[in-house]
């Protein structure tokens, strides 16, 4: 767990910030909130408190957390177990900046206290990430409260100019460069994650973090029967059952290693959040899902395949295409189509064609590196959020 010191100490008292997070499912809600909390505290010197309703999901990302404690401090951040919708901590000290993550609805008692505060806090609704064009128009729009003299500002993450951007720690590129340039770091990572030495350069290393996916069986078979070796790294989770079925095993729990034809697969333990990036750096291609791992794959600057969070009525498909439009913008048509087809197949439309995807690998790799530079121009979300907050709190 990092314990970085604030790099830019604020000139006066630190800005106090409360983040409210309701875990809908999986790890993305708390994953995004915890990453943001750490950046606000460690990079911007804010005094952060996180209210979260599911400490068990949180503990998976942050094993140092005690899931039975109502209040604790970790990494300089106060964590409150948000036990019921009305709960708002022992005291009603309203922060300067209040972040309502993903429209989770603040406790009514807290909103009343916000309205009663001598100076109204800055109230931000942090939205889910979408790459769609409308996001830039809605970013920073205000929504006045129907009863109180309070307004909520919509803060939209995004992949394009005029949006809030996505989270990126200041140290991230340096950490990646250090890992990638150190054979010792790589060897140490492989030993810890798989108990093995790193595979030879002739193997394609693939990390696989996904929801249950009907396309996985076909893909596993293509890897098994392919001309070149594939080494698959699978953190324990929702896709593990499909791996077990494919290999005829009772389970595919952490520590399992299985081999068929040209495919070797390792089941990995789910690591704490700060350890996840190294898995992306150690791989040639990353399968990611949801929101936070999708962003991390972009910063890893390797070709990746996104399993988007499925929504009713296929509402997620335009979002998938909007992300593809950004990511593939400068790719030649053949490589762009191969990537589009593969992403679509991985999200239920068509069949994945690994050989076609692989053919364009060098081009996709180059684009992944360029895209990471382009995306960084939108600015880091925590930095964009703190600049906005400072402009409002002046
Ligand atoms: O877990 P996700 O699917 O999360 C979500 C939720 O479903 C949420 O409700 C939805 O709205 C959102 O997606 C869009 O995927 P995500 O966002 O990638 O979060 C996973 C987190 O888990 C991320 O912070 C990385 C972390 N992680 C680890 O800490 N260790 C690991 O070993 C792995 C594989 C992931």
Sequence-ordered SSE layout with sheet pairings:
Layout: E1 16-21, H1 28-44, E2 47-52, H2 55-61, E3 71-74, E4 77-81, E5 97-101, H3 108-116, E6 122-126, H4 134-138, E7 142-144, E8 151-155, H5 172-180, H6 183-194, E9 204-208, H7 216-225, E10 230-235, H8 240-247, E11 257-260, E12 263-268, H9 273-282, E13 285-289, H10 292-300, E14 304-307, H11 316-327, H12 333-346, H13 354-359, H14 361-376, H15 381-393
Parallel strand pairs: 1-2, 1-5, 2-4, 5-6, 6-8, 9-10, 9-13, 10-12, 13-14
Antiparallel strand pairs: 3-4, 7-8, 11-12
The structure holds 2'-deoxy-thymidine-beta-L-rhamnose.
2'-deoxy-thymidine-beta-L-rhamnose (TRH) binds at residues 24-29, 31, 61, 128, 209, 235, 270-273, 276, 289-293, 309.
Organism: Paraburkholderia susongensis
Keywords: Glycosyltransferase, Transferase
GO molecular function, one term: protein-arginine rhamnosyltransferase activity
Structural notes for this entry:
The strands form 2 sheets. The protein has an 8-stranded mixed beta sheet with strand order 3-4-2-1-5-6-8-7, covered by helices on one side. Strands 11-12-10-9-13-14 form a 6-stranded mixed beta sheet. Helix content is 40%, strand content 18%. α1 crosses α15. By secondary structure, the protein is α/β, with parallel strands linked by helices. It has 2 domains: 180 residues, Rossmann fold, CATH 3.40.50; 205 residues, Rossmann fold. β9, α7 and β10 form a beta-alpha-beta unit. It binds 2'-deoxy-thymidine-beta-L-rhamnose. It comes from Paraburkholderia susongensis. It catalyses: dTDP-beta-L-rhamnose + L-arginyl-[protein] = N(omega)-(alpha-L-rhamnosyl)-L-arginyl-[protein] + dTDP + H(+).
